[in-house]
Write a structure and sequence with these properties.
Elements: H1 2-10, H2 13-26, H3 29-41, H4 45-62, H5 73-84, H6 88-100, H7 107-117, H8 120-131, H9 139-142, H10 151-164, H11 171-174, H12 183-198, H13 202-221, H14 242-267, H15 273-286, H16 291-301, H17 305-317, H18 324-329, H19 336-350, H20 368-378, H21 383-393, H22 399-412, H23 418-425, H24 430-441, H25 447-455, H26 461-511
Helix pairs in contact: 1-2, 1-3, 2-3, 2-4, 3-4, 5-6, 6-8, 7-8, 8-10, 12-13, 14-15, 15-16, 15-17, 16-17, 17-19, 19-20, 20-21, 20-22, 21-22, 22-24, 23-24, 23-25
């Protein structure tokens, strides 16, 4: 911790920024103390803002889960009677009561009633109630709803698993959904499982393999008079152990990479544009020292714009700083894809925090995706210039603009943008609303505001937002005063101890 404290006081701006991120990730009181001391001494306005955001994040994570108040038997009977009534108002009050009191003991019976009632809208409301109960996880209780015929119910269950991070524990239950008639649903689940498999989750990889086998069986069953061929196991080659296989693969990696790179070099000059694009992608993926030069040379020889876009993308992936001067020239190109890839490459090479004056013109670009990439690259260094372009994208009636705007907000995680997120969450367009919900569920800033938005309360958001900010300011001011008083007391005690030690040493000298 002392080393991190030293970086915050004496390090470069870049070191300070990395230290702030590191301390925020610790989510501890000690990290908070270090950041608080740095907040009082830091003179750089941008870094001070980052420190404040990190402090808020740590405070939010240190908050205790609200205690559940005891509920008597009569109250339980009244709640059950209310949500089982045919009165929508009574039902709503009952569900709100369960959430407000965090009455997790009422959830199992509520889920049983939802199964018995078998009404999609009510089941969805019940699952959303479960997602707002902080004191317990109900993944094993809601898993049965995956068999519901309504795709929206199944989506809601999966969304709950994602929120509680229990997808891994319910992989087997998701297997049947891969063959669901709803293509949108089956594709979504397939992507979820594929992402887990790619991240190293063995069970997800096994499930994907089983799914492929199921598809083959299904296809064979559709072929008339299909007769499977049996193979004698004794005739199959002996399988070597995985350890030997891995060892051999590692030993041959370098020689294979050299061969691959040599072949890809020849493909760069192919007459087929798709072959050239494929070669550029594969060369960038090798991360070979020679890769940057090979791809960079294509900027001077390539004439086809779609291939040039791939070249810019490859230079960005390789973080080729030596190519920056050439990449900047494409920021003003008339082709949209080239402007987009050039801006994206600059962000990858320089990072989002560094100043990029050449990119400022793109804040006024007619293409929303390009404007979004420019805002991402300039927000930390030129926030004032980004304000109007970002606001212009905050249109909850326009899908393209809204998604481009939320691409930025998801990266920034700035609480000042929660008013925009509120608008997106209440959009009439489901694609905008669902994306906003995903971002708000993972919000790293002020969780009280993000949870209020997700709660979809009848309470006025503007009033809540202003009131909450005022309370937060007062609380922070109180904490700062308390910390300053504590520091003054500690300093006074240290001075007294130093004086006592001084006189003690003098007395010892006289005694000698």
């Amino acid at each position: 911790m002392k080393k991190l404290e030293k970086y915050l006081s004496d390090g470069t701006d870049s070191q300070k920024l990395q230290t702030i991120k590191k301390l925020a990730s610790l989510k501890s009181k000690d990290a908070g103390k270090v950041l608080f001391h740095a907040y009082k001494t830091e003179t750089n306005g941008e870094l001070k803002s980052k420190i404040k955001k990190a402090l808020d994040y740590i405070k939010q994570n240190l908050k205790a889960v609200p205690k559940v108040k005891p509920i008597d038997d009569e109250m339980i009977d009244n709640i059950i009677e209310a949500y089982q009534s045919s009165d929508p108002l009574q039902e709503k009050k009952a569900l709100e009561f369960i959430v407000k009191r965090q009455a997790h003991e009422l959830i199992p019976e509520l889920i049983d009633f939802a199964e018995e009632r078998d009404e999609a809208e009510f089941i969805i409301r019940v699952i959303r109630v479960c997602s707002r109960i902080q004191t317990k996880d109900f993944s094993t209780d809601v898993v049965g709803f995956l068999n519901n015929e309504n795709p929206q119910v199944v989506f809601e269950v999966i969304s709950y698993f994602e929120q509680r991070k229990t997808i891994k524990n319910n992989l087997k239950s998701l297997k049947s959904i891969l063959l669901n008639p709803s293509k949108k649903l089956s594709s979504y689940v397939l992507k979820l499982i594929s992402d887990l498999a790619n991240s190293g989750v063995e069970a997800a990889g096994t499930l994907l393999k089983e799914h492929q086998e199921d598809l083959i069986k299904k296809k064979r069953a559709s072929i008339p008079n299909y007769v499977p061929t049996e193979v004698d196991p004794d005739l199959l080659p002996t399988r070597k152990s995985d350890k030997i296989k891995v060892k051999k693969e590692k030993a041959s990696v370098q020689s294979k990479e050299k061969v691959v790179l040599y072949r890809l070099k020849t493909s760069l000059d192919s007459k087929d544009a798709n072959e050239r694009i494929d070669a550029i992608k594969k060369i960038a993926a090798t991360n070979d020292p020679e890769a940057i030069d090979l791809i960079y040379q294509k900027l001077g020889t390539e004439t086809l714009e779609e291939v040039l876009a791939s070249v810019l993308n490859g230079l960005g992936v390789l973080k080729a700083e030596s190519a920056l001067s050439s990449i900047i020239g494409y920021l003003e190109h008339e082709n949209i894809n080239l402007r987009y890839e050039a801006a994206k490459a600059m962000n990858l090479i320089l990072g989002l925090e560094k100043v990029k004056p050449a990119m400022e013109k793109l804040l006024r670009d007619e293409n929303n995706q390009i404007k979004s990439i420019a805002i991402q690259g300039l927000f930390y260094s030129q926030p004032n210039e980004c304000f109007l372009p970002l606001t212009s994208l905050a249109d909850p009636k326009n899908i393209e603009k809204s998604l481009a705007c939320m691409d930025c907000l998801e990266i920034f995680q700035d609480d000042k943008h929660l008013t925009m997120m509120h608008k997106f969450f209440h959009s009439d367009l489901s694609e905008i609303k669902s994306r906003a919900q995903l971002i708000l569920n993972e919000w790293q800033g002020d969780n009280e505001i993000s949870k209020f938005i997700l709660k979809d309360s009848d309470e006025n958001f503007t009033q809540f937002y202003k009131s909450h900010l005022e309370k937060t300011k007062q609380k922070q001011a109180k904490e700062i005063r308390a910390a300053e008083e504590q520091e003054a007391e500690e300093q006074e005690a240290a001075e007294k101890e130093a004086k006592g030690s001084f006189f003690s040493n003098i007395l010892k000298k006289f005694k000698k």
